[in-house]
Amino acid sequence: MTATKLHYAIAAALLASLALAGCKKDAEDAAAVTPPAATEPAALPPAQPLPPADTAPMGTETALNVSSVTLGTEAGDDKKIAAAMTTFAPTDPIIVSVATDGAASNAEIAAKLVYQDGQTAGEESETVTTTGAETTNITFTNANPWPTGDYTAEVWINGTQAETMAFNVR
User: Span of the secretion signal (predicted)?
Assistant: First the structure.
């Protein structure tokens, strides 16, 4: 046998062994992909009851209640309204003062002013963390005078309406 024929024979043997090794690998891969025999499904854990609907969103702990809502144009250093009022001038700022009690972590106190036709005249919110009685003031101003008419101030705690108060602009 000449050297060239020997090289061809070795190359052919090498290719044959690679081909066989490749076939065996495919067979192993196919076995790994084959699903196991059917078995009974695993039992699911017992269902847990859902939390009450008024539970605060994740990330908040709350047992916060609105104790009063007062409207006015000025608040003192203690955040309390200096002179409570329900009639405002068209150029007045409108402060919605929300007194709360309870404990909360990252609770959202929101106020919304609704005009007599149902249109939102303003909407603002504050995030509070408290362990007791607290007053939160939300101030509304308007670059133009407030339209005269009847309004409602709505107060919301963590997305749940807590209080409403009627007022007017004359």
Answer: 1-21
